[in-house]
Each structure stands twice: as C-alpha cells, then as structure tokens.
C-alpha cells in the first residue's frame, strides 16, 4: 500500500521530500501535485519504473507521450536540441507555469526515449514538484491522473486520489487540493507555435 505524505507547497519539509526522492530512486511511482492537476511520476532514468507507468496507462512504453517535469530551464539541453532565441523567450516567459511545451528531442535522451523525435517539457509553478526534481537530480517522467467519472475528468482531493490508487502506486503526496484543468500544450517543434490543447495556461501570451 502507498504512503500518504503531507507536504506544504509554501514550505516543503525536507525530510518528507527526501522520503519521496528515495521512493523514486528505488523505482517507485508517486502521485504528486502540480500547478494544474495531480500527476503520476517516476524517475526518468529507471526503465522498470517507466514500464510500470506505461502499464498503468495501458500503453507500450515506446508509444507513450509522457512529459518530462524539470526543476528549471538549466538542464534543457540534456533533453532538447538547441533552440533559437525566440523559442527560448517563449519558454522563459511562460515557465514555471501551467504549460507543456513540445520540443525537438536531443541525441542525449535517456535510452528509453532515444527514438523520440519530440519531447514534452513541463516546469510547474509548484514548489513541491520542482524541489523533488531538484533533489532527485534529473526530471521525472509524468502523466496526468484521470478519473473514470464522466462528469469530473480529474480528481482534485488528494485523499480521494489515495483511496483510489493506493494499491497501484508507492506514494501519494497530499499537497492540498489540485486543479481540475490540465496544462496548455504548445508545440514549438516547428516554425510557428501551435496550440495542441488549450488548458489552464492562457494562449494569449503567444
């Protein structure tokens, strides 16, 4: 059964963060808060954990389009081909924030993502998520937690999330109520920005 770990966004407890990082390092799956909906994440370098997330979503790992959740823009070149200054300006303006940006993948991608031509990069405006990634030392691969309910697409209450998924993940972080609107997805891999999905982030800034 999963651990239920309470962490406050405005003052994350280092001991609890360390506990989550340890679970991720050991190949565990963690449900965690972002600036949009709750996400399901694992360590980008752990193949077994990545396969578990793919099974969780009912898809093959090589077909999965997961987001890479980063702490900031400093390690972008590890995962993304060199980008021009106008693209970088867009990223700098929007992040951290409720956006996922599709960018051309670099040759340095972790082995499980080598064949990917593009990757989705996410830097949420949420201290808990960013500090976990920072302490882990590399991105977490992430996907949204959907609800089977036709009326509510995303569960916002961490206790209900825990109740539902406790037997399929290793930890659920209670970071307060989540949002029920997903991130806005913008494709920056071509010549012009393309809005793939309009979500919480305003598209007017583009």
Automatic annotation (TrEMBL):
Family matches, as PROSITE patterns: YRDC
Residue ranges occupied by any YrdC-like domain in the UniProt entry: 14-201
One annotated GO molecular function: double-stranded RNA binding
Residues annotated as transmembrane: none
SUPFAM superfamilies (UniProt xref): YrdC/RibB (SSF55821)
Coiled-coil segments: none
Pfam families: Sua5_yciO_yrdC
InterPro entries according to UniProt: DHBP_synth_RibB-like_a/b_dom (IPR017945), Sua5-like_dom (IPR006070), SUA5_domain (IPR052532)
Annotated PANTHER family: DHBP SYNTHASE RIBB-LIKE ALPHA/BETA DOMAIN-CONTAINING PROTEIN (PTHR42828), THREONYLCARBAMOYL-AMP SYNTHASE (PTHR42828:SF3)
Protein name: YrdC-like domain-containing protein
């Amino acid at each position: 059964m999963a651990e239920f770990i309470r962490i406050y966004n405005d003052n994350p407890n280092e001991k609890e963060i360390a506990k989550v990082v340890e679970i991720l390092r050991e190949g565990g799956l963690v449900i965690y808060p972002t600036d949009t909906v709750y996400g399901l994440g694992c360590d980008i370098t752990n193949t077994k954990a990545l396969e578990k997330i793919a099974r969780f979503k009912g898809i093959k790992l090589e077909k999965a389009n997961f987001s890479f959740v980063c702490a900031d823009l400093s390690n972008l070149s590890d995962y993304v081909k060199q980008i021009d200054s106008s693209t970088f300006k867009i990223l700098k303006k929007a992040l951290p924030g409720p956006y996922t940006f599709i960018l051309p993948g670099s040759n340095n991608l972790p082995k499980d993502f080598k064949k990917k031509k593009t990757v989705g990069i996410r830097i949420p405006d949420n201290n808990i998520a960013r500090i976990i990634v920072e302490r882990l030392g590399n991105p977490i691969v992430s996907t949204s937690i959907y609800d089977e309910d036709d009326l509510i697409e995303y569960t916002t209450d961490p206790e209900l999330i825990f109740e539902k998924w406790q037997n399929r993940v290793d930890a659920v972080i209670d970071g307060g109520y989540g949002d029920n609107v997903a991130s806005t997805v913008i494709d920056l891999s071509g010549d012009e920005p393309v809005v793939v999905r309009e979500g919480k982030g305003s598209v007017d800034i583009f």
